Amino acid sequence: MNTRRKTQLNKRSAILIGSLIFVIMISLAACTGAKPQPSPEIFSLAGPRLLFLNRSANYKITVLNTKKEPKKEGEVTARLSKEFAYISSTPKGVFTPAKEDSLASVAWRLGEIAPGDNVEIELELRAAATGRARIDSKLFFSEGEPLMAIVETQITGIPAIHISSYDTEDPVEVGKQTIYVIEARNEGTSPCTNVAIESKIPKEMEFVAAEGPTGFKHKSGLTRFEPVPILQPGEKLTYKVVSKCIKAGSAKHTAILAFDQFKQPIMDEEGTSCYK
Question: What is the rounded end-to-end Cα distance, in angstroms, of the chain?
Fold first, then answer.
């Protein structure tokens, strides 16, 4: 057999073997490679990913029947993590408060869902504590496996400090004293850190003394108090700067607040009439 004929036979054999392998692969795929069927019910849970403390938000649960026959005897449950407080739901569900060994939950009975129809449930919750909050929702029908939907929401607080100041005596006679009282209160819902107060007395006044929750340094009419490391929500700081009137005129005291969570200084002014 010549070389040319051998080459042609080898090519034909290779093509035949390749064709047989291809047919076998197709046959195996037809027998074992069936695609997974989609769930007959589409079940989803949607809500905000970020929520501020003490604010409320709505979460939506959706059940869609994609089958060709009606779905009956359904139930939806939603289990709420401890960071959430239940407010209401539409339609109204059966709320079960949290216990020592279980989380709070809400349950709804579903009526018949026709093919292509859907049921929507609105769930209103309040952010009761900071942290990573979570809702675990399940859908049950009399037939088939239950479906699950989960949503997580980060609950965070808002830092906010209010500063105010006043004088204990006004007007003030030259040679007499007044006290500038400065108050800083955390009116937000999260801690504020490195809270610092400065007191700037006017040229009509002379510094006498100061007191506050931390030590201070005074120079050229400016009193700087050392920062308070942390101020929790609802807590208040009080500072006092004693000043002596040395010159008649319209004196203006300035209190200055700074803390880590606010990028600009906050000022509060108090006017004092000095007379002779």
Answer: 133
